[in-house]
Protein: RagB/SusD family nutrient uptake outer membrane protein
Amino acid sequence: MTISKYACGAFLLSLGLLTGCGEKFLEETPSDQITDANFYRTQDDAIQAVTASYSELTKEGQYNLALWAMDIMADISTTGGGGGSDGIEYTQLDDYNIPTTNTVANRLWGGCFIGLQRANIVLLKVPNIEGMDPAIKQRCLGEAQFLRAKYYFDLVRAFGDVPLFTTPPSGPAQVYIPRTPAADVYRQIEQDLTDAFNNLPPSYSGADLGRATKWAAAGLLAKVYLTDGKKTEAAQWARQVINNSGKSLWPNYGDNFKIENENGRESLFEVQYVSGRNGYERNNVGFSGNEFFAPRGSGTTPAGGGYGFNIPEPDFVSGYEAGDTRKAVTIWVPGDPYPAGSATPAQLPQAPGSPFGFNCKKWFIGKVNTNIWDSGLNIPVLRLADVYLILAEAVGPTTEGLDAINKVRRRAFGLPINTPSAARDLTAATPNFNDAVLRERKYELAFEFDRWFDLKRYAGTPNGLVPRMTQQSAFLRTLNIQRGVPTDKNLVLPIPQSEMDANPALVQNPGY
Structure:
């Protein structure tokens, strides 16, 4: 196991970093435990502190619950599960009837603030550590800048205005601050990623494989700029990655989602998961999606066969073009054979929570050891195909933009990536090119937890969240699937009620 698999875990949580927690601040320095007063003294301390800043990514405040649940608010999946009170927090998202106590929103807010405050402490303490290798010190600071930007990017996209901390709060007066305008939060994210690009190495090896690189920072910065409406800058940073990172697309789409290919040729940044550690625990080091998304009662996974959440919607499945190899990687469809030893031999036409027999297959790896929520398959946060599509959207149907999207499309249909295809390539005559790019993102990045954020980026257009999901809800009702209809308030999540109660300076998002 590499150190990038977050082996150091969450030992810094004892420092009381979560905003809005209402905890007392210590006035004395304990001598029998790790604290920020007796810890940041050596290079090893610095590296461990940075590693702890990564660890929140693996938990339910990020990829083990909150971010995959965002797909349920988009047009690719519905809740699934066992019905009734099973997964009520997902049903609330599905129905756009989201209380301020919603578990998913609470976890996302809290997880991001834990992670970014750990990064803040690194940025405060590490510069003062004497005797460090200058290159390691620079790298540690770059990793913290990258991680602070990543956590804030998720916060600002999900909640809008959020409190902005660039140094650790030293007392309650610095914890209980108002929300900062989203535009200012984006400026900080962009500055952090620019600084991270300058501080980070281009690659790692051995025990450090999986840490953020300068190309991870460049790719995320391209995505941030696109989200912020700055297409020129988004294109500039996307080109940096495409032309200089040495990354290339896997010839086969499914190669992105194999354990043996983790941190591989197409990957820019991944959440590092490890198997062999978990029971029923989403805050450990294994990914729970193998169990949560697998067909319910199928016997394909350790806990008796999957829970059947995050169910692909019928029109999403039918929307795949004929010959698109991504479908078989992403979706269980009726008739798909199960691994030997499963309770049933193949996917059924109907299953609990899945009336049309579809389930998410992309994160399925079967029975891992004897543990339960314990997949070691990494989750890609950013890969090269995403950057190609960012470039295509940023520059439009130019020669450059068409080349970028067509590389992704050719791979999807099993064609040579660099060989033009009259049958599959988009051209300058393709109508509604931006719509075509958005559609390509839908199928290329399906169940990689981007779709809700993509629909939000198109707010105010026919492909935006509200019109798209209003149409989707009407369609699902024709299939006797009930789903709520969003309004403009659902462009953001509610600020958790626990944070509102603790911090009188916070103002709730309109409509909640």
Notes: The CA atoms of residues 47 and 135 lie 12 Å apart. The first helix runs from residue 43 to 54.
